[in-house]
Amino acid sequence: MAEVLVVTSGKGGVGKTTATANLGVSLALLDRRTLVIDSDIGLRNLDLVLGVEASVAHDWLEYLEGKVELKQVILQDGRFPGLHILPASQFRGKESVNAKQMRRMIDLLRPHYDYILIDSPAGIELGFRNAASVADTAVIVTTPEISALRDADRIIGLLEGLKIHDIRLIINRLRPDLIARGDMMSCADIISLLTVELIGLVEEDDRVVVASNRGEPAALDPLSRAGEAYRIIARRLCGEIIPIEEPVAITEAAGLWDRFLRWFTR
After folding, report:
1. pLDDT digits (tens, 9 = 90+) for 212-225
2. What is the pTM of this model?
């Protein structure tokens, strides 16, 4: 029976869809039967990041409306027998589906997978609430920016209100050099603000953009630091205990010293 994870963020543009795609691929590489669902109705992108856009003939909203069977909507990634994709509609609005319909569909899918990842729309409106309503676990993706962190904190409160208490955090696009200069919040600072379990750190990596544009997730790239990070996060999701090595462990004190010097020279 699948564990259902909603991958979400308060702010758009923090890498949530990229995280969903890479975690899905990484879980499939671990021989876990995995389904990734794009729930961003009207703004789907998961198919592009995974490179399967040419294979999309139907969407899961058509299934809910009784127009097609579920097996006609689910795509199998030819690179990984254990990875399936459920694309969203590109031309409808988020009000076209409700939480009850989502729950009915997820209940049908659960017995066939080990993990179901739902790529939630950014923000706190109906699309987010529909996706979160069927989840056992939430994975919040944020970047070390004040606006993203404030929105992530808001999302944590909403998830707890929906009775989701298993909340994990991925800090994306981390820049150790900026942390060292005191120009970016450290991981310790972020955890003290958000007070949820940190499950992974993903450093800024230009290879992610190249991979996404090619429809080849970074998790497949042995030279990608971000790809390696997502493979490790997937192993943690599967229960493997892997210590989180902060790239700022040595430079965090330097960042604090830089902030002190800037203050003192004023």
Report:
1. 888 889 999 999 99
2. 0.90
